[in-house]
Each structure stands twice: as C-alpha cells, then as structure tokens.
Amino acid sequence: MLLRAGRLGGAGGLLLLLAVRAAAAFEPISVGLTIGAASLLTGYLSYTDFFCRFSECCRAEQPLNASALKLDLEEKLFGQHLATEVILKALTGFRNNKNPKKPLSLSLHGWAGTGKNFVSQIVTEHLHSKGLKSNFVHLFVSTLHFPHETKIKLYQDQLQKWIRGNVTACASSVFIFDEMDKLHPGLIDAIKPFLDYYEQVDGVSYRKAIFIFLSNAGGDLITKVALDFWRAGRKREDIQLKDLEPVLSVGAFNNKHSGLWHSGLIDKNLIDYYIPFLPLEYRHVKMCVRAEMKARGMTVDEDIVTRVAEEMTFFPKDEKIYSDKGCKTVQSRLDFH
Length: 337
Ligand SMILES: *[C@@H]1O[C@H](CO)[C@@H](O)[C@H](O)[C@H]1NC(C)=O
Ligand SMILES: *[C@@H]1O[C@H](CO)[C@@H](O)[C@H](O)[C@H]1NC(C)=O
Description:
Elements: H1 2-26, H2 28-41, H3 47-54, H4 66-76, H5 81-96, E1 104-109, H6 116-127, E2 137-141, H7 142-145, H8 152-169, E3 174-178, H9 185-195, E4 210-215, H10 219-231, H11 241-252, E5 273-276, H12 282-295, H13 302-311, E6 314-315, E7 322-323, H14 330-336
Parallel strand pairs: 1-4, 1-5, 2-3, 3-4
Antiparallel strand pairs: 6-7
Helix pairs in contact: 1-2, 4-5, 4-6, 8-9, 10-11, 12-13
Bound molecules: 2-acetamido-2-deoxy-beta-D-glucopyranose (2 copies).
C-alpha cells in the first residue's frame, strides 16, 4: 500500500514538474503561477533541496567555489605557496572540465606537520560540505586500516569493493590514502586500475573521483632544496615548482622504502600532480599558534605564542631554521599553556 502511494506521488510530482518545464519554455507569467501551484500542492520542486538539507546528497555537478578555496588556503595554510598554487590549479581545472579523461590524482609530499592532512581536510570541505565526515569522503591510513601483511589479499579485495561501491553511489567520491609510503605494493596495485584512463571499469566510470595520496617520501630532499635557498640568501617564496620537480621524481620514488617505488603509478603517469610541502620555520609555527588560539575563541596573547613556538625543536643543528615536527604538536602544547 505504502509503496503504491509513494509511486503515485512520485508520478504526480513528475507530471507537475514536466508541466512547469513546458510552461517555462513558453511564457514567464504562467511559469510563476505553475511553480506556485506545484509547490503548494506537492512541494515537489523543493524536494531535492529539502531532502539535501537533512540528509547528505552527492552533488557530482556542484561547481567548486575556487575563490572560497583560495581564500581558505591563504588564510589557514602557512608557508606553503607552492602547494596552495598547485592545489588550486588542479582542482579548478578538474572541476571545470565536464569530461575528465581520468580521475584526479594528487600526491602530497613533505615532512610531518607541514600541512598535508590539513590541506586534505580543507579541500574535502570544499568538495563535500561535511568534509572528512562526509559519506563521500574516505580516509585510509596504511598502518591503521591495512596493518597485517598476511592479509593483503583480503585488503585488496575489500579496498576494490569499497572503491567500486562508493563511486557507484557517488561519482565525485574522494579517497585519501595517508602514509602512502607505508602502503603495501599489493594495495597500490589494487588501486591502480581505478586511476587509469578507462572510460569504465566493469560498468562504472571513475573519472569524476578524486584520489589524494599523502606521504613523507621526498621530505628530506624538499628540505634540502629549501635549505639551499636559505643558505644562498634567497627568499623561500622564490622556490618554484621546477626547483623541486626533479627532486620529487628521483627522491620520492627511487627510495627502496617507499611503496610508490614498486608501483608503476609513476611510470604509467597515473599521478596528475606532485605537490611539495616545505619545512616550516619559526615564524610559521607562530602563525599556527595564533590560528589555533583564534579557532578556540581565545584572544591572541603574543607571550604564549612565543612560548609555544620556542618549545618546539628546530634543525639543522647549527642554524635551527626548521621545526622538526612542523606545526604538528602546536595543539597539545597550547593545551598545556
Ligand atoms: C564563493 O565564495 C566567496 C568567498 O567566500 C563568496 O563571497 C561567494 O558568494 C561564493 N560564490 C558562490 C557562487 O557561492
Ligand atoms: C564505502 O567505503 C567504506 C570505507 O570507507 C566502506 O565501509 C563501505 O562499505 C563502502 N561502501 C560501499 C557501498 O562499498
């Protein structure tokens, strides 16, 4: 009974919608009237909006607000001019493309605490408003989700099933793989087919999905480039992508300990953008402390800012330029003060 009523209601709504569409094609005044009548009678027109207000909707075609993303990155991410630039370019390009030939894949590199996780969080919030809590955003941490080498076969099947299932449910799903350098090569092989230029894999298209890989791989070499700039008296902001590109391709992947090395993700060019995160300086740590205080609704007290920043350890030994843990422990240190 219920089912029948539901169906009839749906059909009625559809007819009304068609009537409105037809009217819209002809004359504006009756459009208003029809819309008014339709909303009054069934509420059908606002149904999607209504539904999406209470339950999360997958909006594959929702445009990305690039200026809002830019603003967010510039305000919240400190000391990463290259990452900001590349991420903006990559996402706006991908989202403005009605017909991408493959899913977007980003590989984020740099030491812990430089902002890789933080950026992923910001980016996902602009793609799905609930961010990491969204049903359409999936975070996998190698050591947490795939800890046992003996279960790789099981993990592979599971991961492929999840990716397939989730992209079937929402084409613009986002998958984040943290600790990519600790991911078993077998699992990288399991992800690979989804990243490729296939129109469909078993009837499902993955071309609107986004994959984000985070790793420390290449972090030491990125630091070396930054340090060379510093020692030469050049500005950090003058570091360009081309200064780091050779470093990323050689450093991150010719490393025996890095999972990516085995994977063929690189030699098949399945990664669209390599995004370097520079080591953070004392002034950036201070910015993180201030931002964290503001986020907690505290008034910014420069004494505390300095104290927290000075508790961090810096390297190299002699010059003490870069924070060992970036901004990673800022939150817990602030708790203490
Ligand atoms: C995009 O974001 C900007 C800045 O937050 C905002 O002013 C603007 O209204 C947004 N545009 C749309 C179409 O939502
Ligand atoms: C989507 O992915 C999650 C893991 O993030 C998994 O638990 C869930 O079963 C997947 N959904 C489908 C429909 O496969």
